[in-house]
Design a protein that fits this description.
By secondary structure, the protein is α+β, with helices and mostly antiparallel strands. The chain is built from 20 helices and 30 strands. Strands 1-6-7-8-9-16-13-12-11 form a nine-stranded antiparallel beta sheet, covered by helices on one side. A hairpin with a 5-residue loop joins strand 14 and strand 15. Helix 13 packs antiparallel against helix 15. The N and C termini lie far apart (about 55 Å).
Length: about 800
């Protein structure tokens, strides 16, 4: 009776909640990634389809990758087998003589030894309810505030409620079937319908069902998954298809299945001392232990622990936008299908903001890997772009929204990934390719420390990737001011990147202007191999500035290093060069064209999300140049038509206080790039949009960041500046969001603000909490709202 009441209350609460996705039909098995709603606890991902009578839950395990040392003992992380840095002087000489050198293949590794691999799905949990096929009164919902997925329907005169969640406290996913009448027989199974060689093995015993396999023959990564019925009141039997049949006893009205999984991947074994093996112990004992830890628990206790854990994080921040059209009463798929960027819908815009935060909570928790290109959710064995870690915008964008919305504390997986997976092999890459200290990587990373170049220069020659990620590292410190974390985690990473760039910033022998430039460099995925790419100059300037600004909290006593940083920063070729048509140049050579609508905004990284340009936001010459550059880049349609490129543009326009364009592009992104379940997808290329457009989660996270940029501008104060820390509230709030409010917006220096705005989008109320440093808070017109 207690359990029935709990589920009934939860269902009512979901119907009343505005922060949910819901549908009146099951997800489409032929189009899972655009119709199913995702669940996750960092390590485990699940996508219940809500099928009546024969349900399917697509399962993921965060570390399940093919490739790397699990594919070949010859894997060396994409590095060349011997030093190649002696080729650098010749490469640079060609650049100094001709401005470009598109042949830097001497720095590539041998493709024979790449073995890059890819993230892949684990399999499916299947749950069958005997005699249930026809149904009515169907509802499927995902509550973003609780992380609870529920499917409700009526069949054969009985009401069924299916509740699913993936709990971080208990490290399992739970699937509960409940009815107001005794349940028919229930059959559960674990299936793998995609692998053929090597095939996985499904099995069944009195305790439950098991799926075990490996990604490749012989040395492939081992995965092990188990599903078990909790507190079953009657004897279960195994079927010939290795499923577990739980018969009806004519009395019991509910059954709970718990699922756990693991692999033998061990991120801590990615060091030279471990021969870069990344190989841990067989996962089976740990999976059994996880199941045993919950097998005597009640469903309600797991449910309550999960909701408390999830909501503690989700409730750290609240955005309230109006719902004048009563969209809360319309199924999510209908809202998404009918969304028109010429009109907009603040309810949908708020919902997608909340969804970005929800997805991050589900895909980034202690002990997990950081979210990849699809978070942790894929239904494929071979997802697009390997569902890897692109570090030329995508990984960075995944984390842009976290600090301001109270999710900074759960970013630990990113720092662990850099330290354990990237730094060890990346240190070798720096030595082999550049004879440099520190560590380096390029455009793409897998989970096995792939730090070499794997494509032509335009696609992979991107040694600034670590420097860009230092923006995320800096934000962790700047918003929380945790000096212990900075001394032990943040600063050592920042220093290592700084050491690399002190070595790799070289005198510009083409311009002979006495400045230091990066060479060879490629602006991410765009243009020639050259020198002085604006993107690099901006990022490296910021890295050096962070070292200088945080010196007192770093614990570093090497003042010679500090002076070297200061001297090198002072000699950098400027990251702001205004070009022939009034733009911020992308390269030191003025190659920019006013009709170049490339997807990346690499030359504006110092405007957003960085600050090397943004600190000049009061300089009209600079802001006009940013405006010209953004105008030239278009609306994010012409090149790839991705969601992430659109939301990046939104944030940049918002920081220019251009509400009209920022809001138009935000709406345009929703209209063009978000599926019926809210996932961001590509809308062009070789994939037909209707069924197979690839899902890429960066635009879900980047969308939340773009909305934040419309709500607040809060830039770091440069180390050499005496300026007061100034926060602008409401730089680009549209009138359509009239009367909205925010609670829990974190600001730099610690603390948070709550604020609201009038019907014109002008902030008129603000409250500051727990902020210990001097700060001035103003509205978009410069009116001081609060000065502490």
């Amino acid at each position: 009776m207690l359990l029935t009441g709990l589920i009934a209350l939860a269902t009512c609460a979901q119907r009343a909640s505005a922060r949910k996705l819901w549908a009146t039909e099951p997800a489409d098995p032929a189009n899972i990634i655009m119709t199913a709603y995702p669940l996750g606890n960092g390590k485990l991902g699940a996508m219940p389809l809500g099928l009546v009578g024969e349900d399917i839950v697509v399962l993921n395990e965060h570390s399940l990758w093919s490739g790397g040392p699990f594919e070949s003992p010859d894997y060396i992380g994409g590095n060349p087998p011997a030093p190649v840095y002696t080729a650098l002087p010749g490469i640079r000489e060609t650049i100094w003589n001709t401005q470009i050198n598109n042949d830097i293949s001497a720095l590539y590794g041998d493709p024979t030894y790449y073995h890059y691999g890819n993230y892949e799905t684990l399999g499916n949990l299947t749950v069958k309810i005997a005699g249930v096929s026809r149904y009515s009164s169907y509802n499927r919902a995902l509550d973003l505030e609780t992380g609870i997925h529920q499917t409700a329907f009526t069949s054969n005169g009985a009401k069924f409620t299916i509740t699913t969640f993936c709990t971080f406290p208990d490290q399992v996913c739970a699937y509960n079937v409940q009815s107001n009448k005794p349940l028919p027989a229930v059959t559960i199974g674990l299936q793998d319908n995609q692998r053929s060689s090597p095939s996985s093995n499904s099995s069944c015993d009195a305790n439950g069902v098991r799926l075990r396999g490996q990604t490749q023959q012989d040395i492939g990564m081992i995965f092990d998954a188990r599903a078990q019925v909790l507190n079953r009141p009657r004897k279960a039997t195994c079927t010939s298809s290795h499923e577990l049949l739980v018969p009806s006893d004519g009395k019991t009205a509910s059954v709970t299945v718990v699922y756990a999984a693991g692999t033998n991947y061990d991120q801590k074994k990615g060091t030279k001392a471990s021969n870069y093996s990344f190989k841990g112990v067989d996962p089976a004992p740990a999976v059994v232990s996880t199941i045993q830890a919950v097998e005597k628990k009640s469903f309600s206790s797991m449910y309550n622990a999960h909701v408390k854990d999830h909501n503690t994080l989700f409730s750290q921040f609240t955005l309230n936008l109006p719902d004048s059209e009563h969209s809360v009463s319309v199924p999510t798929a209908t809202l998404m299908e009918n969304y028109d960027y010429n009109v907009g819908d603040p309810f949908v815009e708020n919902l997608l903001f909340d969804y970005g935060r929800y997805l991050f909570i589900g895909s980034c928790r202690d002990g997990s890997l950081p979210p990849n290109l699809q978070g942790i959710w894929t239904e494929n064995q071979f997802p697009a772009w390997s569902s890897d870690y692109h570090v030329d915008v995508n990984v960075q964008m995944n984390h842009w929204h976290t600090e301001q919305t109270g999710l900074g504390d759960i970013q630990g997986p990113l720092w662990d990934f850099i330290i354990d997976t990237w730094v060890p092999r990346g240190t070798e890459t720096a030595e082999l390719l550049y004879d440099a200290p520190g560590f380096v990587g390029f455009s793409n990373l897998n989970t096995f420390g792939f730090t070499g170049q794997m494509n032509s220069a335009v696609w992979s020659n991107y040694p600034a990737s670590a420097a860009w990620l230092m923006q995320n590292v800096w934000n962790r410190y700047d918003y929380g001011r945790d000096t212990h974390w900075w001394k032990t985690v943040g600063y050592p990473l920042m220093k290592s990147v700084a050491e690399y760039w002190i070595h790799e910033m070289v005198p510009d022998l083409y311009s002979n202007d006495g400045t230091l430039v990066a060479a060879p460099c490629n602006s991410p995925e765009h243009g020639w191999t050259t020198f002085g790419c604006t993107h690099y100059q901006q990022l490296v300037w910021e890295v050096f500035d962070h070292i200088i600004d945080s010196w007192e909290d770093s614990g570093d006593t090497n003042t010679t290093f500090l002076e070297t940083v200061k001297e090198t920063q002072s000699k950098l070729s400027p990251g702001i060069i205004i070009g022939w048509f009034g733009q911020i140049q992308e390269w030191k050579i003025g190659w920019d064209q006013p009709n170049d609508e490339h997807r990346h905004l690499s030359h504006l990284v110092g405007w957003y999300p960085g600050y090397s340009i943004g600190t000049h936001m009061w300089n009209k010459t600079v802001t006009d140049a940013v405006n010209v550059s953004l105008t030239a880049r278009g609306n994010g349609t012409a090149d790839s038509n991705t969601g992430w490129e659109k939301v990046w543009r939104v944030a940049c326009w918002a920081q220019l206080n251009n509400t009209d364009i920022a809001y138009t592009y935000l709406k345009y992104a929703i209209d063009m790039n978000y599926a019926n379940n809210g996932f961001s997808v590509y809308t062009s290329g070789s994939w037909p949009y209707e069924l197979a457009a690839p899902f890429q989660i960066d635009a879900n996270f980047g969308y939340s960041a773009a909305v934040l940029a419309m709500l607040i501008t809060d830039l770091p104060v440069p180390s050499a500046s005496n300026a007061i820390h100034t926060v602008i509230l409401g730089p680009a709030i549209p009138s359509a969001w009239k009367g909205g409010s925010v609670q829990g917006m974190r600001i730099r220096g610690g603390g948070s603000v709550d604020f609201s705005w009038d019907n014109n989008g002008l902030v008129n109320k603000v409250a500051l909490h727990n902020h210990k440093e001097s700060v001035k808070i103003v509205d978009v017109n410069g009116k001081v709202l609060l000065h502490k």
